[in-house]
Structures are given as structure tokens and as C-alpha cells.
Amino acid sequence: MVIKAFSTPNNKKMNPPEKLLTADNPALHQRAKAMRQEMSEAEAKLWQHLRAGRLNGYKFRRQQPMGNYIVDFMCVTPKLIVEADGGQHTEQAAYDHVRTAYLNSLGFTVLRFWNHEILQQTNDVLAEILRVLQELEKQPAR
């Protein structure tokens, strides 16, 4: 299994205000709500394993607004974001880079997996998510 991308914050940041985690943008909240109803096959499969603390008790939110973005899955404690990605174009890769830098600046680690990995190697993906969560718990609070 190849992780598409794994990025961690490169410096310690203070905890973001809760307002940044919820985004004060009604249109963004509406879009996130719609996205919860229109998840891709890979997102739906991953959500079945992450929801309701099913992955070793870690609590995840799905399609969560953060700043001006919506992340696929977010675990607040420890700070991990999991993204399910389909096909990419060059402009999408540049957008993802800026987005990831913003999320890292809030102290979040970002894991990205290709949709086909989630669908075909689900256990490996879950094992990697769990490994990163446990590693993040060992680190001092940021």
C-alpha cells in the first residue's frame, strides 16, 4: 500500500480556536451537509469503519468545515485529518498543497489515501490510520 501523502505540522502551534474548527460560513455548512449525503463509495466505506468510535474508540467527524475548507474525516484528539482522493489534475494537486499547509498550520496531521486503496486495501488503510493516531498520542500536545 502506498500512502498518497502524509504531512505533519513542522512546527508547534497553539490549539486553534473552536471557531476555526466549525467555520462561520453558512454556505460552507450547507455544502458539508450535502456532501455527507453524497459521499463517494470510498468515503462511505471508510466512514463505516471510523464512525461511532469503531476504530479503537477514536471519534471522527465527516465532511467537517475548517476555515474555508471541508475535510473528509477529522479526529480532533489527536489532531488527524484523513482525506480520500480520486483522480487528480495538476491544479487540484496545487490546491491540495495550499489546503494541507493551512491544516498543518492549525496543528493537524493530514493523511491522504487514493480511493482505490480504501476500496481494495481497507484493512491496510485502517491499520495506517490507527498507527498514526497512536503515534500522535505519544507526542506532546501542540
Automatic annotation (TrEMBL):
Keywords: Coiled coil, Methyltransferase, Transferase. CDD domains: Endonuclease_DUF559. InterPro entries: DUF559, Endonuclease_DUF559_bact, Restrct_endonuc-II-like. It is an enzyme of class 2 (transferase). It comes from the Bacteria. Residues 28-134 form the DUF559 domain. Residues 25-52 form a coiled coil. GO terms for biological process: methylation. One of its GO terms (molecular function) is DNA (cytosine-5-)-methyltransferase activity. Its EC number is 2.1.1.37. It holds the Pfam family DUF559. This is DNA (Cytosine-5-)-methyltransferase. It comes from Neisseria macacae ATCC 33926.
